[in-house]
Write a structure and sequence with these properties.
The protein is an alpha/beta fold. The protein has 14 helices and 10 strands. It has 2 domains: 198 residues, Rossmann fold (3-Layer(aba) Sandwich); 142 residues, Glucose-6-phosphate isomerase like protein, domain 1 (Rossmann fold, 3-Layer(aba) Sandwich), CATH 3.40.50.10490.
Length: 383
């Protein structure tokens, strides 16, 4: 068990690496603002009272790129049943503005304040009647200048927390409050690091991943059986790829959506090359309509009184059984409850896991130097 809400099975027959526990102890004892943001003592750069003037906004638009939006999208989709407002995410370069007379509250997010795509999208989308919140570092930048020009609110982005690690900082928690969610319930680190089951699961998972890298298995494939978690794993994809893809090494995270991908890439996963390791992910969500028994023919009697959830779960278990029989390495997450606490636990697990792998490989998990090269080259071509 990872926690009361998450049943976790780690990879089989792989020994724990002793040094991982030492790296974890050292990491938790150091001053680290990324980890601080996962805990209950983190201080936001805004006060709850500040958000009252935006609480009545019914149309909220998040404008940003990468880690500035992915974590918030994960929260919105995973917990959509709790959110009464409409959120729109602009997370890619748009070419034009659709005619929309609605009044929006725009939350424009860029750590540097100079992200090209965010600047372009903000200029296309922002209307005079909109309310605007700019979330960026407290230093000279384009977005700070634009915010001043528009007389908009500015909230300071923590200098020491990169986008992909920022989901439980202001970047994710300010929108979460406007969704009507409780940011305190996401903050699970202080509780989790005291749980032996969590620490053991974390160390086992990191040890296994290091073993796979040593054996030249570089493809980490997510077998996702929950459509509401697609953006959670887009966030995870950035977290792993951008944090660990350095020094001619790294892990390639690939997300497969089930059961759709049973009919496309599963053949390759089962009988193709063997440099993959897998993560199964399923949420026990009972809110599915039952199949109409009157439309079931005798050849499909096994489908009677079933719903999509039970069929999906059977497919997951069947696939795990086949993987096991073929000795294909996999781990499994089974989520029992869809709420802030559970999602906070998943964020904590994946962030800690990624940082520990980076530390064990002597890789800085916090920077992304190669991406900066493309930004500089693009600017040269546009000047």
């Amino acid at each position: 068990m990872l926690s009361a809400n998450i049943k976790f099975k780690t990879f089989k027959k792989i020994k724990k690496i002793k040094k991982i526990k030492n790296i974890l102890i050292k990491l938790l004892s150091e001053q680290n603002q990324v980890l601080d943001s996962l805990g209950s003592s983190y201080k936001y750069s805004y006060h709850n009272r500040y958000l009252t003037k935006f609480k009545n906004s019914s149309n909220i638009r998040i404008i940003g790129m990468g880690g500035s939006t992915l974590g918030t999208q994960a929260i919105y989709d995973f917990l959509r049943y709790k959110v009464k407002k409409k959120f729109t995410f602009i997370d890619n370069l748009i070419s034009s503005q659709k005619k929309d007379k609605k009044k929006f509250t725009n939350i424009i997010i860029s750590k540097s304040g100079n992200t090209t795509e965010t600047i372009v999208n903000a200029n296309i989308l922002i209307k005079k009647k909109d309310k605007n919140i700019f979330l960026t570092e407290d230093k000279p930048s384009y977005l700070n200048l634009l915010a001043s020009k528009l007389k908009a609110d500015i909230i300071h982005h923590n200098d020491f927390i990169g986008g992909r690690y920022s989901v439980l900082s202001e970047v994710g928690m300010l929108p979460a409050e406007l969704m009507g969610l409780n940011p305190k319930k996401f903050k699970q680190l202080n509780f989790l690091i005291k749980k032996k089951s969590f620490i053991n699961s974390l160390i086992s998972s990191v040890s296994a991943t290091l073993y796979f890298i040593q054996k030249k298995k570089y493809n980490s494939i997510i077998i996702n059986y929950d459509e509401k978690s697609e953006n959670l794993f887009k966030w995870y994809q950035q977290l792993v790829a951008e944090s660990l893809g350095k020094k001619n090494s790294g892990i390639l995270p690939v997300v497969s959506i089930m059961p759709r991908d049973n009919h496309s890439v599963m053949q390759l996963y089962l009988d193709g090359f063997k440099n993959n390791f897998f993560t199964f992910f399923h949420v026990n969500d009972s809110k599915f309509d039952k199949i109409k028994n009157s439309n079931i023919l005798s050849q499909q009697n096994f489908l009677k009184n079933k719903n999509s959830c039970s069929i999906l779960y059977a497919q997951k278990k069947a696939t795990e059984n086949v993987f096991m029989n073929k000795n294909i390495p996999f781990r499994s997450f089974e989520v029992k409850k869809r709420d802030e606490k559970t999602l906070g636990e998943l964020f904590c697990f994946f962030i800690l896991e990624t940082i520990l792998i980076g530390k064990a490989l002597n890789i800085n998990p916090y920077d992304q130097p190669a991406v900066e090269l493309i930004k500089k080259e693009t600017k040269k071509l546009l000047i």
